[in-house]
Amino acid sequence: MNYLDTLNEPQLNAVKNVDGPIMVIAGAGSGKTRVLTYKIAYLMEQGVDSFNILSLTFTNKAAKEMKGRISEIVGGGEARNVTSGTFHSVFSRILRHHAEKLGYPQNFTIYDTQDSRSLLKTIIKELKLDDKVYKPNGVQSRISSAKNNLLTPAAYQANSDIVNEDRQSGKPRMFEIYKQYEKRCFLAGAMDFDDLLFKTNILFRDHPDVLHFYQHRFKYILVDEYQDTNYSQYLIVKKLAAVFQNICVVGDDAQSIYSFRGANIQNILNFKNDYPDYKLYKLEQNYRSSKTIVNAANDVIANNTEQIQKDVWTDNEVGEKIRVVRTLTDNEEGKVTINNIYETKINNQAEHSDFAILYRTNAQSRSFEESLRKMGLPYKIYGGLSFYQRAEIKNILAYYRLTANPQDEEALKRIINYPKRGIGKTSMEKIAIAADHYNNTTTDDVSLWDVIANPKMYPCQIPIGTRTKLNAFVTMMQSFMIDLEKKDAYDLAQHIASSSGILRDLYSDKTPEGVSRYENIQALLSGIKEFTEGVAEDESSFLADFMMDVALLTDADSKDDDKDHITLMTIHASKGLEFKYVYVVGLEENLFPSQMALNSREELEEERRLFYVAVTRAESNCTLSYATSRYRWGNLITSEPSRFIEEIGSKHLVLAKTTFKGGGRSLNQKSMERKIGGTQSGLPKRTLTKLTDTPKKVKGDTSHNLQDLKVGYNVKHERFGKGKVVGLEGSPISKATVFFPKVGNKQLLLKFAKLEIIG
DNA sequence: CTTGCAATGACTGAT
DNA sequence: TCATTGCAAG
Question: How far apart are CA A577 and CA A515, in angstroms?
Fold first, then answer.
């Protein structure tokens, strides 16, 4: 039982109290994952059957890692019987099991955001509504929040508040779109992300036997990141826990950052109402970060009004101050950041994986990526366009989807003319009209596929030439469908890829992009091969099994290619992670906090929590940076530093020199500085008032006298010793290649490497 | 039906 | 800036 000895008192209490409702409020870096992991291990040691444990985590990767650690503690293969994963993945599996009870096919498709937006666009067009008024994005989030609050289209229409809101915002027909969207999803045998939770609630509501079964199956329920659950998730958990009430939720109200997805802090605050005899444990000791970082983060979060009282502290050393870096443009921010990473890595002999660059929006990754590429440093960008969202991958997956579920309308639309087979817009419109017609005039549920596959039953006005092409497509798809449960996933996937013509189509494209698309398909196929080989003997390895949770996979879940790389991601994606050196970039008003969040206190406080999350990712060093101007939609806009920087006590901050002088840009920078009206160094006035005790750095310029460097000069480096210049780059010179007898050729950035000319 | 070009509007965040 | 959409010509 030595693993329990590593816990502090509140952690130990949270682990050892297993019965009844428990809430753990866990400050950043306070070891909550450890508590959850050990708690499950402890439960198993106490004789609880692992089949009776349900653990809901924020990513599937976290679930996998937890299982691994539990296995190490309890040994044997028992840990794999714990049901664990994200809400979406756990309940999509349960839904598959009972799909027919809800009228869905077992192989129902999961529509991702793109699919459902595309369907919404179609519907808006069909209803002859103006898509400038009914913006697909806005409609989508409206419907999403309705679903997250468990409002069916009928309930939506019956709710006068909501209907009034829609009317006042000039969108009185919103409920029709919702109704139609719901109908079309059902016809297509498809659920969107919100449906996975919504339909689970419906399943439990309408089928008490099913609910009863899972209530008794999951005697112990653990929920991580509870502050980010929405009403729909809250209700699922509440229903499941109703019998045994062995529910343990872990969260931190200060890290609630998903309200845009319907997350509701009230779930934490309401816990005591639902379970009056609950036990509360607070984990307040931070084991992750330096005192400086913990205290700075506390300074920031103190500006929020609504929070659960807690006092996060640490025994770790004070550590270094948080560096504040000001640059003139977003591009310069990229260069300065990457150069600092490069320098820090060498000075501290750190790994690339010790570094993370965190930003507010995905679009900010560009300038960092460019600099990283120029410097030849290994990096990985998480989020943004993930592998499974690339067009070529979505296309081939659409073939697989349609094979597993012919009703899938979005999949059909995607591939009916890919690769090109002469079935264009006009034909598709005719088919859609026909399907709609037969839906209204017969009692059948008629999908697009039904129309093209049964021309005798559902005739439509299509010229004979096109008809022939359609028939060929139908015959091909049907042959895939026959193979669905005959061939294993890899064989069928490979077969479809080649006989659909996709591989040929991509192979013929010899542009770099085309080659990379072809490689992506190959990568997908080898992923499927791996899946096929990795399936346990008692499980099936059909293509439909592989497809089951592809839609739910994210970059965070993709297995680490255990390559040593610098991490770039949004702050949202960084939740739960930690890095030695963290760079929080783009700290500018209207960017972070986001412009969209400035209208209400609630939204601003969420931005602040987001900043809190960002800072608390750091273990030993944290750097905050901002640019005084940045490109947005192609034109330069000026910006001022984020209010969040000011909220950190100045004693925790230090202004970094911004001495970047690369690539002959000094002149440009100077003139821009004049134009923008920034001060010569340090922060603009507003911030200076708070930073008066920070010593102003005089612009040091070590590279100045090095401009006379010539190839062949002898130089001295503080670590590598004497060497000879063999190459120079940049004008003015920014980079030198120097041969050192001790270590060989080294590329040095003049502004960092303190070179001394010795003749 | 396909291709190519011009015009347009999007950048929060993500299961 | 970049990806998507609309329109005209082949």
Answer: 34
| Closest C-alpha among A390, A367, A147, A289 to residue A620 | A289
Distance between CA A229 and CA A251 in Å, rounded?
10
CA distance A680 to A698: 10
Name the phi and psi angles at A587, rounded to 5.
-80, 80
pLDDT tens per residue, range A370-407:
999 999 999 998 887 778 888 899 999 999 999 999 99
Residue type, A224: D
Which amino acid would we find at residue A532? Answer: T
Crossing angle (nearest 10°) for helices A113-126 and A425-441: 80
Who contacts A727 (Cβ-Cβ below 8 Å, separation ≥6)?
Answer: A711, A736, A737
Task: Please give the average per-residue pLDDT across A246-258, as a whole number.
Answer: 94
Nucleotides of C under 7 A from a protein CB: 1-2, 4-5
Cα three-residue angle A517-A518-A521, rounded to 5 degrees: 90
Cα(A283)–Cα(A576) distance, integer angstroms: 15
| Rg, chain A, Cα only | 29
E-strand spans in A482-617?
A: 566-570, 579-584
- The CA-CA-CA angle for residues A41, A32, A48, to 5°, reads 20
Q: What is the pLDDT of residue A618?
A: 97
Question: Does residue A684 surpass a pLDDT of 50?
Answer: no
Q: In terms of residues, how long is chain A? A: 759
CA of A510 and C1' of C6: distance in angstroms? Answer: 29
Closest CA relative to residue A701, chosen from A669, A724, A675, A677: A669
Sort strands A355-359 and A579-584 into parallel, antiparallel or unpaired.
parallel
Sequence letter at residue A455: P
Tell me the average pLDDT of chain A: 86
CA distance A220 to A43: 9
Q: Evaluate the omega torsion of the peptide bond into residue A732 and state whether it is cis, within 30 degrees of 0.
A: yes
A331, A372 contact by CB (below 8 A): no
In this complex, which residue's CA is closest to the C1' atom of nucleotide B14? A261
Nearest residue by alpha-carbon distance to C1' of B13: A572
Would you state the pLDDT for residue A604? 93
**Cis omega (within 30 of 0) for bond into A593:** yes
Checking A125-133 for CB contacts under 8 A at 24+ apart, the result is A126/A180, A126/A432, A126/A436, A127/A173, A127/A176, A127/A177, A127/A180, A129/A173, A129/A177, A133/A170, A133/A171
- Which of the two residues, A693 and A21, has the higher pLDDT score? A21
| Per-residue model confidence (pLDDT) at position A656 | 85
Q: Which of A613, A681, A625 is nearest to A653 (CA)?
A: A625
Q: Cα–Cα distance between A52 and A474 in angstroms, integer? A: 46
Give the catalytic positions of A in this structure.
32-33, 224-225, 255, 617
